[in-house]
Amino acid sequence: MSQTQLKQQADDAADLNEVSLERKAALLSGQSQWQTRGDEQLGIPPMHMSDGPSGLRKQSDSGDNLGIGDSQPSTCFPAAVTMGMSWDPSLAEQMGRALGAEARALNVNVLLGPGLCMKRNPLCGRNFEYISEDPIHTGRMGAAIVRGIQANRIAACPKHFAANNQELRRMASNSVVDERTLRELYLTAFEIVIREAHPRALMTSYNRINGTYTNENMHLVHDILRGEWGFDGLVVSDWGGSRNIADGVRAGSTLEMPGAGMVPVRELVDAVEHGDLDEQFVNDRVAELARVARETQIEELAHDALPELPQAMIDEHNELAADLAAQCITLLRNDNKVLPLAAGSHIAVVGDLAGTPRFQGAGSSQVNATSSESLLHALTRTEGLTVMGYAQGYERDGKSHVRLIRQAAELCRNGYVDAIVVAVGLPESYESEGIDRQNMQIPRVQHELIDALARTGKPVIAVVYGGSAMKLPWVHKVQSILYAGLPGQGGSRAIASVIMGQTNPSGHLTETWPLKLVDVPNANIYPAKDVNAIYAEGPLVGYRYYETARQPVRYPFGFGLSYSTFEYSNLQVTEQGVTVTVSNVDGPDGATVVQLYVTAAPSGGIRIARELKGFAKVQVPAGESVEVSIPFDEYTFRHFDTTLGRWTVTRGQYSIAVGANAHDLPLQKVIFVSGDVAPEPYDARLGAYLEGAPQRANEQELEVLFGGREALRARLITDGITATDVSQSKSARARTTHYFTSDDPISDWRKSSNWIARSIAKRLHRKAYASLNTSGTPDLGACFVLYMTPHSLKKLTGGRLDEPMVDAIVDFANGRSWHGLCRFVRAAAANKRANKAMQRRLEK
């Protein structure tokens, strides 16, 4: 923090000593769904917040937080799953600058993004919002996005802090993770972004970590975020993710969202007046909020306005969206160099996803795009290409339709057709915020279609859409595969440019594609069905597992082909970093990603075959060579020592490897590093972990991973869970008794002894998933409520519920119907009176 900022903070703190507690407390919770409270006398303007990982979703203050309602038109850029595949921070910063510019034009102060969570398992329904399975890659790309956003005097708000890796029961889940894995894998990306890009805000997640909700987690927010990393910005809860506002303020959380009326104000004032919270914590949080509100103040427009983007900006960003997507499209297969197609080619276009584009994910990241173009339309208007016809090929909902497949095959047998472009992948119903995928399959009817197309004898070019790894049993039946991810509104034009060779593909995968789901190290425990989500695989996630276990995969982390052929040579390693020569020995001008991996000296814990420690996207002209340098930095050799409670560097030999992906590393050398601790043999008690087989780890080995039986038990939520559940913690066993608390999701009410509570849960479940059979998409509103806890419901009802009313609702679910009903009526009347009383105190 600068001297000017320090002085301003000191002045703010002094001024706040003269301000009433009620006014200060009111500032620490929202005014409405998207707007914070302001205080004109204190010079604190209100702020408007908007979702925006890949495009701005600006809604009015009466809007929803799930992406269901209408929002202002804005540019839909490539989703994180696609943008990450560029491996180019400069492109990520361009996107960030465009997002920030649209935020300022639409009167948004805080843009909620980017998403920095690790891709722990391919089934996470929100993987499309996250950048990578690796923290170094995520941190570098995320930092670039933040720098771009904040160049417009907008606050970026990276999320979801932290270990938010499943959608099922996300408001009631407890991420149970050992400290070394937490630090090295799940927090490092956030650390890089905080230290290198200095975001003005950060969003905590819904889940608990090791028993404590993240928004109130002293270790996470106070000790690490604010203490070790020095973060001095705004910490905001996810919408409804604050469990106790006083505990949050004490831990270092600034703002509870969305607005919940006078209830959080009352709770905070009561905590101070009863001696449970020092008022200085309130002052500190208000000073943080004031600084961000002033730094991001937009004076040109009133906060209740819904302005439109200038047409010039719409046009410019539409072109940028296509340009960015073109640098992200990843070529996974290209037998016999079928791509690029020659000028004058005649093609057939097949697949519902080609006729009706899917270019973004569902949920809070879904934007009202300023433009939309199908792949069919983009190919039809591509110069040098003739589209001979289009066939739907399959129903979007996955139902088998022999007639559609037959029509597609007949079209492709046309003698004038030179090649087939077929669009396949995950439909909207398979992945979304609020739900996890059931498996790695794409709809079976798409497999049947590709089988039929392959039998025509024509070259098949498969364009694959979706937010995470998929099982592709037909991979050897097609000649080319382009993975588009979710490429944004310019994706169709980008794909067409790659198909015709106007763009030489340079995307590389940011997650491993396993051959099948059972190969995933946590396949048997993900997603956790009960409260405890045990990260029993430890650090063996993604390529760290597959390379350590020598498990064959479909495509390794970092994989991506090009129309050019690149060779690596002349690896030089010094204390400062590495240099390597990259040569384009065949093909046109092109770009590739040079990746640096390190194998560490033994430091106890679990052996990991290699870890990404740096990368560089490099352009290499045809027939030429380029020297590439990748420096070592503070993250290259460190590991977290749980005994010392700090980061250390082990003294010893480190293997340095450079190549095109995590598996293909042709150049390797060994370097000696003078660390601050002596090497330590791997812990033999870890057994199966040392064999790269976390799936086979027994109870004792799991306890060693967590530092002992008591250390593991201390991280678990055990209320209402049997002793067997704790001792055999990797299994998701059903509870033997069903006593509900305000932290249990409403979905659990299906086990209630109260038939009304059971009926509510069952009806919500039917409503949430019945639409999959009709519209092809889940009912996100019903999903959100189904997996909501009664306590989070209190935070999302605008002050209509308070703690006693929530307790009465839980009584009802626990079978005490009459008692709960009477208690609720009394509490409702008391809540109304208390809210009015606090409002009067505020107005004095």
UniProtKB/TrEMBL annotation:
PROSITE patterns the UniProt entry points to: GLYCOSYL_HYDROL_F3 (PS00775)
Region ranges (Disordered): 29-67
Key words of the record: Carbohydrate metabolism, Glycosidase, Hydrolase
Pfam families named in the record: Fn3-like, Glyco_hydro_3, Glyco_hydro_3_C
Nucleotide-binding as UniProt keyword: no
Domain Fibronectin type III-like: 592-662
Example of a GO biological process term: carbohydrate metabolic process
SUPFAM superfamilies: (Trans)glycosidases, Beta-D-glucan exohydrolase, C-terminal domain
One function term, GO molecular function aspect: hydrolase activity, hydrolyzing O-glycosyl compounds
TM region(s), chain numbering: none
Family: Belongs to the glycosyl hydrolase 3 family.
Protein name: Glycosyl hydrolase
